[in-house]
Amino acid sequence: MKQNQNTSRLITIAFFIALEIILTRFLSINTPFLRIGFGFLPVAMLGILYGPLWAGAAYAVGDLLGIMMFPSGAFFPGFTISAFLTGLTFGFFLYNKPVTWKRVLMASSVVCLLINMCLDTLWLYILMDNAVIALIPARIFKSVVMLAIQVTLIPMVWNRLLSKIKLIQTA
Questions:
Q1: What is the mean pLDDT of residues 21-46?
Q2: Which residues contact 61 (CB under 8 A, 6 or more apart)?
Q3: Residue 36 and residue 21 in contact, taking contact as beta carbons nearer than 8 Å
Q4: The pLDDT of residue 170
Q5: How many CB atoms lie within 10 A of CB 83?
Q6: HSE value, Cβ hemisphere, 13 Å, CA-based, for 151
Q7: What is the sign of the dihedral through the CA atoms of 81, 83, 85 and 91?
Q8: Residues facing residue 30 across a β-bridge
């Protein structure tokens, strides 16, 4: 029975990693320095379902697989660290807790404002030096937009997913 649970968890995580890669690499708006997309959704769902470490590891693996299969620039490990921390954050705030808009707002604020706005800007500074200063207004705009999108979509998608899971379990 335990082996079936582990197999089921592994398959679910692999599915969400594949979904994250698709949403990030193909269904997002990309510029050389800015990405607006929905790759956060599978990671948030993994954080809710399996906790911080699984979500963090899955997002880091998804980032590494995505850059290997569909490179969109040079690999920089800082962004993989940001991916891990994003999964960790969603798991920390949402695992084994009610998925309320307040809790999602806290998690998304950490992700959008601390990890994406601050840490990712640091990675860009390391890569580009002072040229990153020109990107700060666009990065602030992106963080505010993504915060609103995440706070809206995460509870909505989770509630829809939860209803499907309950339907499957009762069948």
A1: 88
A2: 17
A3: no
A4: 58
A5: 25
A6: 16
A7: negative
A8: 35
Residue type, 148: A
The predicted-structure confidence for 67-109, as pLDDT tens digits, reads as follows: 999 987 788 999 999 999 999 999 999 999 999 999 999 999 9
Contacts of 12 (CB under 8 A, 6+ apart): 49, 50
Q: Minimal CA–CA distance to 90: which of 41, 156, 18, 19?
A: 41
Residue-wise DSSP of 92-107? HHHTTS---HHHHHHH
Q: What is the pLDDT of residues 105-116, one digit of tens each?
A: 999 999 999 999
Q: Which fold has domain 2-166?
A: Arp2/3 complex 21 kDa subunit ARPC3 (1.10.1760)
CA distance 142 to 96: 29
What is the rounded distance in angstroms from the CA atom of residue 90 to the CA atom of residue 21? Answer: 18
Q: Which amino acid is at 46?
A: L
